[in-house]
Amino acid sequence: MPGKTRAFIDHDVEAFLREGLAERLAGSLGI
């Protein structure tokens, strides 16, 4: 797998996880 593609996927997954965690936190806090 090309390095550029790998970096893009890693960044995409990281952003997805961060958004998911933020939504889960907001939901548990009732925001």
TrEMBL record:
<protein>
    <submittedName>
        <fullName>Uncharacterized protein</fullName>
    </submittedName>
</protein>
